[in-house]
Structure formats: C-alpha cells, structure tokens
Description:
Structural class: mainly alpha
Low-confidence stretches: 1-5
Shape: elongated
Order of helices and strands: HHHHHH
Oligomer: single chain
Largest sheet: none
Mean pLDDT: 91
Distance between the termini: 74 Å
Number of domains: 2
Number of helices: 6
Amino acid sequence: MTAKSPLTKSIDNLYDEDYYLWLKNTAQLIREKRFAEVDAVNLVEEIEDMGRSEKRSLESNLLVLLLHLLKYKYQRAKRSNSWKASIREHRRRLRKAFRDSPSLKVYCEEVFAECYEDARQQASDETGLSLDKFPVKSPFTVSEVVNEKYLID
C-alpha cells in the first residue's frame, strides 16, 4: 500500500495532527481551486484568529509606546537612550501595521484610551511614582504618539 501524498491525505484530522501540513494542504487546494475539499470551518477560524492577532499586536505596541512616552515625560532625570530607541521601534512597528492594514488606524483610535490607561498604571508601577502623577486623560494625541518627529522636551 502506498502512502498518500500530503495533498490527498484526509483533511478530517489534519488540522489537529499536523498544523503546518494542514496550512500547506489548504493553500495548495485553494491554488488549485479545489474549494470543496478545503477545511472551511478551520480556515475561517484561522483567518479570524489572524485578525485578532493583528489587533493584539497593535495594542501591545501602542501600550509600550505610551509607557515610554509617559516615562520620558514624567521622569526627566531618568531619560535614557533605550527609552528613545523603544519609542522609535514601536512607532516603526505601528507605521508598518498601518501601511499593511490601513483599517488598523481606526482600531488604534478605538483602543487608544484603554491602552493609555494600561500604560499609565504600568508607568506608575515601573517608576514608583504615584498614579496621580500621570494624567487620567492622555497628554498625547494619537497623531503625536505615532509621529516619529514628536518627542516631549
């Protein structure tokens, strides 16, 4: 008995047994327009997960960026090049995300206040400064936060 090729191997359990092979198999089936054979249920789930992953990545980068902007603004005596480098790096990541998925700019606006509050609390934890030291409302606008030329004096 000959072994089945990856493309002809049953897709019934492939998603759970060998994820990478499932991905290759699914891509090949779509390329060949063999849509009836595609594991649509798991494919839809994976596509939705990819969207959630993009959102989580944006939130994570925004939080770190806001955190370092807060520390840079409110801990002048401890300003460091590593904070500047982190600010530049996370702006670069956001810029790339917006270039690849412009609709994420809208999502950034939607989660900005929540990310700011998380960054505010983390800044207090990391600096030892009172939470009251950091304003409840962000001292930065979204456009300032992502502007590579903006840095607090």
